[in-house]
Design a protein that fits this description.
The chain is mostly helical. It contains 10 helices and no strands. The chain has helices spanning about 10-20, 25-35, 45-70, 75, 80-105, 115-135, 145-160, 165-170, 175-185, 190-220.
């Protein structure tokens, strides 16, 4: 009898789920900007930085949802594949954060402020945390290389880092998402950005709530 989890239909549904998950920033970007085109060519860099910045926030908030494994997702999707998706989305989010930082800082209208300070600190945590996670425990593409495995072994032996300790350091990346939320809220200067900020905060809240429920259930078991 054919395994239903490996049927062509199930394989297609899993691929569709990946594509939908990658596309989750689209409605939030539409709420934030109200348009896909760039009405003012002179503000192209600034507007593009907003798009990748919103995308980065949504992808990293979604990491909390994936980590919570809600609604039997791990059972259907498979834990290894779910971890691979989690790692892939971290790469997407990391690239988007760095693009946002570069584009925003190079925009003609850029000026350091209290709001940009939160964004800078969040980016620094994400940068350092992502590098550490990639070198120590990530399932992202390329992490099976022999040279990286040697580095991981050295890190664990010299720093005496068990998997729970690695997880604790990895979870500090959630702090960056919270700082990024402050960064977003301080940028709300129009009605549309206020709506978008509420939507983004709600998405983050869903991730936090699901993760808390998952941790409580895990401890109870």
């Amino acid at each position: 009898m054919e395994n239903p989890t490996k049927s062509p239909l199930n394989t297609f549904l899993k691929l569709l789920f990946r594509l939908v998950w990658i596309a989750t920033p689209i409605p939030f970007v539409l709420i934030y900007r109200q348009e896909w085109w760039f009405a003012d060519p002179s503000s192209f860099t600034s507007e593009l930085s907003t798009i990748v910045g919103v995308s980065a926030f949504i992808w990293f908030s979604g990491q909390l949802v994936l980590a919570a494994r809600p609604f039997g997702l791990a059972r259907w999707f498979g834990v290894p594949q779910l971890l691979n998706l989690h790692a892939l989305m971290a790469v997407f989010g990391f690239a988007a954060v760095q693009a946002h930082f570069f584009l925003k800082s190079s925009a003609p209208d850029f000026a350091p402020s209290f709001q940009t300070m939160f964004g800078f600190i969040a980016n620094l945590i994400i940068l350092l945390g992502s590098i550490f996670a990639y070198l120590s425990m990530s399932n992202a593409p390329g992490t099976k290389a022999a040279w990286l495995q040697r580095i991981r072994k050295t890190i664990k032996e010299k720093w005496q880092l068990s998997y729970p300790r690695l997880r604790l350091i990895h979870n500090l990346l959630a702090l960056a998402v919270l700082l990024a939320m402050v960064h977003v809220l301080l940028a709300t200067n129009t009605q549309y950005t206020q709506y978008a900020s509420i939507a983004m905060a709600s998405w983050l809240g869903v991730g936090v709530l699901l993760l808390v429920i998952y941790r409580i259930r895990k401890r109870a078991n």
